Amino acid sequence: MTVRIDPFTLTPGVAGKPYIDMGIAEEIIANFKSDESFKYVYKITGLRGSGKSVEYSKILQTFEKEKHWLVYPLSAEGSGVATLISYLSRENFIESKKVKTSIGANASAEGKIPVISGKGSVDVTKNYEDNDNYYDAEVMLASMIEAANKKKYKILIMIDDISKTRSMVELLSIIGTMFNRGRQVYLVVSGLSKNIEDFTADQKLSKSLSFFRRGDTREIGALDKFDIVNKYETFLDIDAPEAKKLYDLTLGYAYAYQILGSLYFNKKKSETIEDLIPDYERLLFKTYDLDWPKLSDGEQDFIRSYYKGKTGQAKDTKANMKNSASYNVYRDRLIDKHFFTANKRGYLEPRLPRFNRYIEIWCDN
User: Among 3.40.50.300, 2.40.50.1020, 3.40.50.620, 3.40.50.150, what is the CATH number of 24-89+147-219?
Assistant: First the structure.
């Protein structure tokens, strides 16, 4: 029996064979490699499941193969500065702090703690060539980056799914000083718009993180409808009308495209597209359930009102809102958070497929 291998994937950061190129990774790669470009910071934003991590991974994997680039992916929840120093200290051209250890048998050391081993005692003393009292992480990191640049290495720092923590603020502040000193340092982060905006919303940080605020932002939008239909035709071996029916269910949402492609690939011959809807919704709703609780009461009311209005027109959404005067405020917020697009004046279109069903079943109070 021949096992059919599903080409679609739900693993974050993995494109799979039916990958639809958004062009964002290529743009960033081209700018970083070009001697004519002076772009050093990119922020990739979009909905959860929109394909941010795929673009991020493509950039990461490309530069890891480049000869004169040092690429350091950092955890969004980790200790950014300490981790970056640890990464750099492993490079053979870095002269990191050396520790000398001396061992004396049955010796008495002043102020030292003896280590007892068997019948005798052995004390171990460590003599640091540098005085610990003068150690500073920022100075250490700056000197390491300078050493890397002198060896003709460019440094690329990458953070996926970034969010504001004390450690990330510290790291970004230090990176900002590197640009002022002309260092060859590059930064790519991905994340939800709200999480990225949190870094510059604080007025106290506005000066030290101004480089981050001004860095180029690239939003992951909907996948092209013609590309989706073409990929479904190719990888599912179906005709264009059937592929179009599948596309209509995705609204161009990348995660939905992968889910529905996988479900259709693995369906029984007797099953129809309608038979796939329960599993399709189940998988989508798990993702929606991560974002809905983080919305404010006003944002949730706006979304409920939008779907109750049914037309997407401002007047019909306002008719169902608790406070219609706040329409423009919440409209702009939810566009920024990628829940809607506004291609026509006075009219909104949803970005998330079956989101009305999610609201109806799980969130309609």
Answer: 3.40.50.300
